[in-house]
Amino acid sequence: DADVTQTPRNRITKTGKRIMLECSQTKGHDRMYWYRQDPGLGLRLIYYSFDVKDINKGEISDGYSVSRQAQAKFSLSLESAIPNQTALYFCATSPGANVLTFGAGSRLTVL
Amino acid sequence: GDSVTQMEGPVTLSEEAFLTINCTYTATGYPSLFWYVQYPGEGLQLLLKATKADDKGSNKGFEATYRKETTSFHLEKGSVQVSDSAVYFCALSDYSGGGADGLTFGKGTHLIIQP
């Protein structure tokens, strides 16, 4: 099994729908992150968490929310999806020192 | 705020050619620097890192030296292979800048190696 597992891998939805992307890890790391990748823009940080009680906004948190259900689980929600949220989303974990382990990504298309 | 600038792609080379991908950074403190690689359909993987000035990171034939005087961390490889085709991201982390945790990434450079 992969160290960082993201589900779903691909999702097509319509404007206004609620979407949840899930991430689970077997690394035992405390720190977890959600990034968004857009062509020509690189990766941008949405939210990060140091533990289940510590959630922090990143560079582009508007329109997103997160939940850290356990040390191993960190989910990203779009309450009302819009087309400009079409992107590739990555979950990552870290033990610290910013060496990140990434999941394979979740490709979201909002029509 | 912190930022990373890397050369635009795609970069197309022939097999066994010499590779340089330029990366420069702006940071308020003393960042650690990283190169990550993304193969098609996969997440990013750490390729190499350097944590202080003049450090050289190396892995799989790739090298990069942390140059504080020129705020650069250029990626090099002496002889590329088709299997090196991927997107390469330069990144930094800078706790002392007071910004968010995690990494600041460049926009990525798509490398294409032709046989």
What does this structure look like?
Chain A is mainly β. Chain A has strands at 4-7, 10-13, 19-25, 31-38, 42-51, 54-57, 65-70, 73-78, 87-94, 101-102, 106-110. In chain A, strands 2, 4, 5, 6, 9, 10 and 11 form a 7-stranded mixed beta sheet that branches. In chain A, strands 1-3-8-7 form a 4-stranded antiparallel beta sheet, with no helix packed on it. The model of chain A has no long low-confidence stretch (mean pLDDT 93). With 115 residues, chain B is mainly β. Helix content of chain B is 0%, strand content 49%. Chain B has no helices and 12 strands. In chain B, strand 5 (32-38) and strand 6 (44-50) form a beta hairpin. Chain B is globular, with a radius of gyration of 14 Å. The model of chain B has no long low-confidence stretch (mean pLDDT 91). Chain A binds chain B through residues 4, 31, 33, 35, 40-45, 48, 50, 56-59, 90, 92, 94, 97-100, 102-105, and chain B through 32, 34, 36, 41-46, 49, 89, 93, 100-103, 105-108.
Portion in helices of chain B: under 10%
Q: Mind telling me the C-alpha Rg of chain A?
A: 13 Å
Which sheet architecture does the biggest sheet of chain A show? 7 strands, mixed
Instruction: Characterize the biggest β-sheet of chain B.
Output: 6 strands, mixed
The helix/strand series of chain A, from N terminus to C terminus, equals EEEEEEEEEEE
> Which strand-content bin applies to the residues of chain B?
over 45%
What is the oligomeric state here? heterodimer
The beta-strand count of chain B equals: 12
- The residue-averaged pLDDT of chain B reads 91
Number of strands of chain A: 11
Shape of chain A: globular
Distance between the termini of chain A: 32 Å
What string gives the helices and strands of chain B in order?
A: EEEEEEEEEEEE
- Which bin fits the share of residues in helices of chain A? under 10%
The amount of beta strand of chain A, in percent, is over 45%
